[in-house]
Specification:
This protein is mainly alpha-helical. The chain has helices spanning 3-11, 33-38, 48-54, 56-68, 70-93, 99-152, 180-191, and strands spanning 18-20, 43-46, 157-160. It has 7 helices and 3 strands. It is elongated and about 85 Å long.
Length: 225
């Protein structure tokens, strides 16, 4: 299966994701409901489905899954090609065949078609189950990244915008509030053992090394008296 097909299958999984970030009031005080309505609310939008298939772990595991099911896909294709060949034979030679031969050919087609349908259903269920395990594994690591990013950037709510309205509740959002790439970059950096900056940039810069001294003292000569 191609990566594009894996993406389509992942998109078929339903994700309903709304992550509220509640800010703690300073000094232990709580704002009244009327006052909270006056506070500006920053909202972020993330495509959970795109984020999952965009992570390094997600891409790697989905590609491994596709390779694993490659032989099964070839097996199903061979059976489907065999059925097509029998159908063409029935169409072209059917009028010339006797009743017994024609009935036998029809039974072969029917039997192979039922076997193909069962095999396709079993393979699809098996693939979906293993793919869902990958999705859930990546999602468990991705959600904390989204939460930390939201808090660091003062977001009050993060909404999943994986699909357009009316299939998803999000009608429209400015590209400026899309945090998908930012959280995927952070996730990938953490998976690679790198520490991202609090703002979601690539990583913390390494401290610069002090330049080596070229003074006579460093070269082993005695300082002037």
């Amino acid at each position: 299966m191609t990566h594009k097909n894996a993406r389509i299958i992942v998109d078929a999984l339903a994700f309903a994701f709304v992550l509220p970030i509640v800010a703690m009031a300073q000094g232990g005080s709580t704002a009244s409901p009327s006052a909270s309505l006056l506070l500006p609310v920053k909202i972020g939008v993330v495509s959970i489905q795109s984020a999952i298939v965009g992570t390094s772990n997600g891409q790697r595991d989905l590609q491994v899954l596709e390779k694993k099911f490659g032989p099964k896909k070839n097996e199903l294709k061979s059976l489907a090609d065999e059925i097509d060949a029998l159908r063409k034979q029935l169409e072209t030679q059917g009028p010339k065949l006797n009743d017994e031969t024609r009935s036998s050919l029809v039974r072969q087609i029917d039997s192979k078609q039922k076997a193909l349908s069962r095999a396709q259903e079993d393979a699809q269920n098996d693939y979906a189950e293993q793919q869902n395990e990958i999705v859930q594994r990546v999602l468990q690591k991705l959600l904390p990244v989204i939460e930390v990013y939201a808090k660091d950037n003062g977001l009050s709510v993060v909404i999943d915008g994986s699909k357009p309205w009316p299939e998803w509740p999000l009608v429209w959002a400015s590209p400026s509030v899309d945090i998908t790439k930012a959280v995927v970059d952070i996730y990938n950096l953490q998976s690679a053992g790198l520490e991202p900056r609090p703002s979601g940039a690539s990583r913390q810069p390494r401290p610069e090394k002090a330049p080596q001294s070229t003074s006579p003292t460093s070269q082993g000569s005695q300082p002037p008296k």
